[in-house]
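Dear colleague,

Thank you for sharing your sequence with our group. We've completed the structure prediction you requested, and as agreed, I am returning the results in plain text so they can be pasted directly into your records. Please verify that the sequence below matches your submission; if there's any discrepancy, let me know and we will rerun it promptly.
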Amino acid sequence: MRPFYVVDQEVKAEIKRKRGKMPRIIDVHCHPYTKEGWKSLGKFRMHLEKYLYKKAEVTPESVSEEMPTDEEWIRPYRELEVVCTPVAWDAGTTMTGDGAYAPDEIYQPNTNDYIASLRDRFPDVVVASWGSVDPWKGQQALAETERCIKELKLIGLKFQQCAQAFMVSDKRFYPLWDLCQSLGAPVQFHVGYTGMGSGAPGGLGVKLKYTMDIIPNVDDVAADFPKLKIIILHPAEGRDDDACLVCMHKGNVYRETSGMWPKYLPGNVPKMWYELNRRLQDKIMFGSEFNLFPLEGIIAQHLELEAKGEYRQGILEKLFYRNTINILGEELERVGVDLKEWEA
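Please find the predicted structure tokens below.
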């Protein structure tokens, strides 16, 4: 029950011993669930506190009390020598309006200005940030996308289709992908199972269809926008084969590992695990899902798998930073990141 933003010092020492003088790890997917930031999940976070952490009584006040400040949220990254690219969150239509879910009085977005401020206040750790727009807001979403990239200098946009209740291949949202492509802004799409509403009656209204149909949804967008870099998030539990096939077939589709303890990858997503060591070894990046998971625990399990010979030689360094530089290096340089540390 140790707070995830308090690093286990024994695990930290072991990580440093195993990694030696390697460049810092790059975490491409994490969430600032801080004293205010956790409210971007609203009632879903309240449910997760009970479902994941087995707490008998949960109130908004108790959750806020246990969440870190911005400074505390940053601390594990500094201690563990990891840099990150956190994501914003905007699902206002479905979480407060007349969308898929009942109005959520707790919800408030993690705004693009806030996520940019993390980068500006903690540049040694937050090297870049991902914006978020509500796809149902039409022209307003397009204008905010342009502001994210041109004014706030965010690296790209992140979407959670179950939370936002939309299909990425719906032609109504094609102007959004066209704009991102023209701006050179990569996008992150959630794929496979989602923890939102997991275990609750009716899943709190969340529908898995929005992230389970990787083919044709993600595949269509990748085919229709070949210059748009698409990162499909998480191990895609339930659609393991499809996620690997799309990533292999489409040169503009990439993957990351957040949302599952590494030790479960071989059993839960065997196709991803197999290809991570083989054909997709250059297309998968490290993501932590911090602070829903402890950062040092995720890193330590990857290192344990390597020590057991589960990773082929050199694969883990590709996962930890080399692939990110090769895949997103141009975009990172566009937003002002000095890549010398990782290119040396």
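Summary note from our side: The beta strands are 25-27, 82-84, 130-131, 156-159, 187-190, 230-233, 253-256, 284-285.

Kind regards,
the structure core
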